[in-house]
Amino acid sequence: MARSLAFCALLVVALFGTTLAARELSLQASTGLELVQNMAYLKPITNAPESVSAAIQEPVIDATMRRKLLQSGPLVDDLSVARSFQHGIASGDPTATQVILWTRVTPVAADTRALVYFKVAADSGLNTIVTQGAVATDAGVDWTVKVDVTGLTPSTTYYYQFYSGSAKSAVGRTRTLPVGDVSKSRIAYVTCSQYPDGYFNAYRSLAGEPDIQAVLHLGDYMYEYAASAAQATKFSPPRQVQAFQTVTLEQYRARHALYKTDVDLQEAHRVHPWVIVWDDHDSTNNAWRNGAQNHKTATQGPWEARLAASVRAWYEYQPVRQVQFDLKLRIYRSFQIGNLLDLIMVDTRIIGRDRQTDDPPDPPVLNTTAGNEKFAVLFDRTRTMLGETQLEWLQAQLSDSKGRGAVWRMIGNQVLFTEMPVTIDDPDTNGYLGPVIGYSDGWDAYPETRFQVLDHIRRNAIDNVVVATGDWHGTVVSDVPFYPFQTWGRSYLGNPNQNSTFGKLGVNANFTTGLGSMATEITVTSVTSAFFGETEAARASAVKLDDTLKSLMPHLRYSNHFGHGYAITEFTKTDATHTFCFVSTILSPTYTLDCSKKLKQLSGTNHLIDA
C-alpha cells in the first residue's frame, strides 16, 4: 500500500474506536482502506473557453498543491466532532463497473478540513463490504465529497454510506449498468425544478418507482433568481430562496446547497443513480457560449467569471464524472446499457450555442438591428446549437450505436427539438404558417444543426432514436420529420406558394402512419416550474393551447400544458413505452399520482401510437 500501516491504524481507531483497532487493522491489510481522491477538487474551469481571462481561473498548480496537502497524512478523524450530513447523498454517472458517490459534510466551526469515510456494500445492512475508503474535504470545495468508485460488477445493486466525526449519512442505493444481452431498461427523466414554486412531489413519487436504471435530469436543476416578497408567505414553512441572484461562486454554492436540503429531492437521489446535464438556469436565463439574456456586464461583471462560478459549483454539487479536461466545459457523454440502449447526453446550452435570435446583445449596440435578425439568421448555415466538435461526436455516437447492434438510442436534450408553429407576418410569404423560430430558444432557431442531425440519421438509416427533452414546462410529444410544415428543403421558407395552409411533411411522408419520421421526441413536464400557473384559469389556458397545437402540428401525438411530474420510458427489444406521471398538486405536500397516459413506439417505426 502507498500509505503506512501506522496511518491506517490511526484512521481505524478514529472510525471504530480503540477496542476495535487491532481487529480492524488486520482487516485493512486485506481490504486496502486508504485515502482516495476527492473528485470535487478536479476543477474543469482550468479549461474554460479561451475568452475566460487568466485572472478568474484557478491555476492548475494551486489545485495540485491543495490535493497534495489534503492527502498527506496523518489525517485522523475525531469521533467526538458533531458534524452532520444535512444535504443528503447521491450517486450518478453509472457505468458497468463504476459509479460516482456524492455528499456534503456540514463542518463544525473549528474545522479547517474533514475526513469523510465511505463504505459500499452488497446488502442494505452494509454487512458485505465491497469497497471502502476515506476522502478529505475542506472549504475549497465547499465541503463536498465526490468519489469515483471502481471495480464494481455489472448489473448489480449496491448500498453505500458516509461517515464523518460522530455523524452517519443515510444509506444510499445505486446500481451499475448491465452488459451483454439486456431485455428491458426503465429510464426516468425530469426537468425544471424551481424550489419556491412548490413542493417537489414529483421527486418524492419518483423515489418510489421500482427498477429504475437511471434518472436523467435534463437541466434547470436550480434557478438563479433572487427571492420575491411573495415567497415568504406562499408556503408554511416558506420555500424561499436567498435574497440574491446567483452571480458569484459563493452564491451558486449557497443556492445548490439550499436545493439539496429538500427532503424529497434527497430521497430521489438516495435511491436511484442520476445522469445530469445543465441548462440555462443552472447558470442564468437564456445562456449561450458567450453571454446570456439575464446577464448584464455593467452590473454583474464579466460573463466569463459568472460562467466559471456556475460551472465550478455545479461540478462540486452534482454526482457527475468529468469527461475530459482538454475539451472545454464538456458535459456531453454517453452510456451503454448492454445491447439494448445507448444514452447520449448532449449540451445544447453552453459549449457550442450561438446567441438566440431574439436576445439583444450585451452591452447593447445603438442604431442597429443587431440582436433582432429573427428571420435572416435562419439562412446562416454557420449558426450552431452544438458546435462543430459536439455535432461530429453526436453523429458518431448515433452511428456507433447502430454499428454495435444497440436496439435503441435516447438523446438527453435540453430544449425542444421538434418544429413548433408560428404565424409569419411577412407579405413575401403570403401569410405562410410555418416554424420560423417557432421557439427561439430551441432547435427551431438553429435549423442547420437540426438538419445535420436528421440528415445523418436519414443517410445512415438509423432507426429508434428517442429525443428526451426538458426546459418547456409542459408535455409535448411528437414524431420528428424533417419539415412538418413544408416540402423537402434545407431552409425553412422554401417556396411557400407551394404549401397548403398546414404545409407538407416532405418526401414520401404520412402523418398517420409516421412514414417519413426520423425520430420521436418526448418533452417532459416540469417538476415545479410554471407554464401558465396552478389556477383554474391557468388550466383553461393550457387546454386552449393544447387544442391549438393539435390543430397546427400534424406530427404532434400528445400535449399537456397543465401539471407537473416526470416521464419513464421502458425499453424492450420490440418497443418503447413512454409513461407520463403527473402529481395532482405542487401547492401541498399531500398529493395523488396519475400515470395513466402512455404512448408506445414499435421498434423500427419511429412513430408514436397509443399504448
Characterise the protein shown here.
It is a single chain. The chain is an alpha+beta fold. It has two domains: 32-176 and 220-276 and 279-317, Immunoglobulin-like, CATH 2.60.40.380; 333-528 and 536-558, Purple Acid Phosphatase, chain A, domain 2. The protein contains twelve helices and 27 strands. Helix 1 (5-16) packs across helix 2, helix 4 runs parallel beside helix 7 and helix 10 packs parallel to helix 11. The termini are far apart.
SSE inventory with pairings:
Elements: H1 5-16, H2 21-31, E1 35-36, H3 60-70, E2 89-92, E3 99-104, E4 114-121, E5 129-137, E6 144-149, E7 157-164, E8 167-168, E9 172-175, E10 184-190, H4 201-207, E11 214-217, H5 231-234, H6 249-259, H7 263-271, E12 273-276, E13 287-288, E14 291-292, H8 297-300, H9 303-317, E15 333-337, E16 341-345, H10 388-403, E17 408-413, E18 422-423, E19 433-434, H11 447-459, E20 465-469, E21 475-481, E22 517-523, H12 536-552, E23 556-560, E24 564-572, E25 575-583, E26 593-602, E27 609-610
Parallel strand pairs: 1-5, 2-12, 10-11, 11-12, 16-17, 17-20, 20-22
Antiparallel strand pairs: 2-3, 3-6, 4-5, 4-7, 7-8, 7-9, 10-24, 13-14, 15-16, 18-19, 21-22, 21-23, 24-25, 25-26, 26-27
Helix pairs in contact: 1-2, 4-7, 6-9, 10-11
Signal peptide: 1-21
Domain Phospholipase D N-terminal: 87-176
InterPro entries: Metallo-depent_PP-like, PhoD-like_MPP, PhoD-like_sf, PhoD_N, Phospholipid_Metab_Enz
